[in-house]
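A common beginner's mistake is to predict each chain separately and then try to dock the pieces by hand. The better habit, illustrated here, is to supply every component at once so that their relative placement is modeled jointly.
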Amino acid sequence: MKRNPFPLVVLIVVVVFLYLPIAVLTANSFNTSRFGGTWEGFTLKWYYQLLLDNQVWIAFANSLLIAAGATLSSCVLGTTAALALHRWNTRLQVFHYSLIYTPLVIPEILMGISLLLSFTAVGIDCGLHTILIAHTTFCVSYVTMTVLSRLQDFDDSLIEAARDLGANAWISFIKVQFPLLLPGIVSGGLLAFTLSIDDFVITFFVAGPGSSTLPLMVYSMIKHSPKLPVINCLSSVMLLLTCLLVLASRALQNFRGNKAA
Amino acid sequence: MKRIVSFACMLALVCGCGSRKPTLHLYTWSDYLDPGVVAEFEKANNCRVKIDTFDSNETMYAKMQAGSAGYDIIFPSSYQVSLMAQNNMLQPLDKTLLPNVSAHFDDSYKKVILNPDMVYNVPYAVTFTGIAYRKDKVGDVPVDTWACIDNPLFKGRISLLNDFRETIGAALKSIGFSLNSTNVDELQKACAVVQRWKKNIAKFDNEQYKTGIASGEFMLGHGYSGDIAQIMIDDPKNIGFAFPKEGFTAACDEMVIPKTAKEPILAHAFINFIYDPAHAAKNIQYICAAMPNREALANLPEAYRNNPAILPSKEILSRAEVLKDLGASNALYSKIWDTIKAAE
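With all components supplied together, the output reads:
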């Protein structure tokens, strides 16, 4: 039987479109040439500059702090919202659903500027806290949607069984429903984290003085900075960190899986 | 719950620890101040300086209009300064707090800034658009004229700026009109010029052309002097910068203090500090663009002083024209630009 060439073609297309730019970027982070047009020799000087660049690290810390905070708060809010939407089928919940759904579809720029307008109207000075609030606002929707889809497959008779066996509402939630929902919450949280850490448009508007995040910084560097290769280095480092993180979580899962077996 | 509380505490800590010393907040372009100079200022005034960056005048303006507050000095371009002043967003500067500015400002630059009275603004860096060229490829062909874009010798090896004001402006200049023209006839003629140019060039580009010139992919590049000066310093033998004799654009980024500034006195001190000739000289070398400071410009190291992209002669300066905000006529330019982009 002749093998279907289609998967191979898809593989090549994916590699070329997704991974070639990353490979070029990583290679250029070691390039002596500042503009990366031609290969002029191997160097680590850009990495050294990156190491010394305090501004970048402060921005990086801001980004991590906000992403972690937004993930945590949106997981709590998103899960409760999903539970409410799942449990009650009233008019109020229909309205609630559309409220949750809106941030997914409205343009980011609209959301950014309206958040800024409302912060200034109330008299809140912008800073890290306003970015955190803004990120939580749009992350909640994503978490709610993932948890909700998990709830739709959820077998409610499990809870009834737990109640039958004497568990009260709280215990049955903690011992039965929550563990079963956890994968949904975690994947929602991961989605929230990635969305938060690379959001530019909304962050640009709600960021106050002294609260630049990494995307804000990188964006203005790309356009005007003579230190372009430093961004390449930073991207390569982040890429490496992400890969290590993914590998570590895989290893952890395998380890747990083996133990269970 | 505990985790949220502890996170809130952490956040409060992070936000709160800056409050002991006064903090000056700058809103500027990326890598636009020598970190050494900023550190000196922090030491001299026992304060902290925090720098945030923006990438375009327009987005910065949108954010300020929506009410973003707390920045003490902003670095917009001239035309944006006019707009911000009109909208009552800026504080008039107290000249008594800026002795260095009155002592060292180079008057020959008054011509290339839009608001020479300097009520709200102090010029920071002046840049020009001109033609970058590869000395090794161009040879004896004169490039100090917009006409060289038509030269068949360079076919397919030229890049023009992807900016309608700059490129239509260059075309207007090449046929002897003002680059702030709003006359429909003149603009139609300029449109025809750019359409002719389009057949001879490789592409319209605003960011990658530096790479193209540095690697020799392009022989000519219509570009900003600040960008070109950077690559000239890396490769002075092969790269040159020419000011077209028909005229070219000048632009200036200025320092302004918004009404909502929290540390206006410290902000004045910073502007004054920047205008000290020694500090100005450091910044000029860091950003590769001229700051109109007489003493600083006179004492630059040779490599910088002899670089026309950084320090053009008085004669060249007299041919520069500043881009003005055209208000409603911008639409006319953007329509012409669409025609050009759509043309074969």
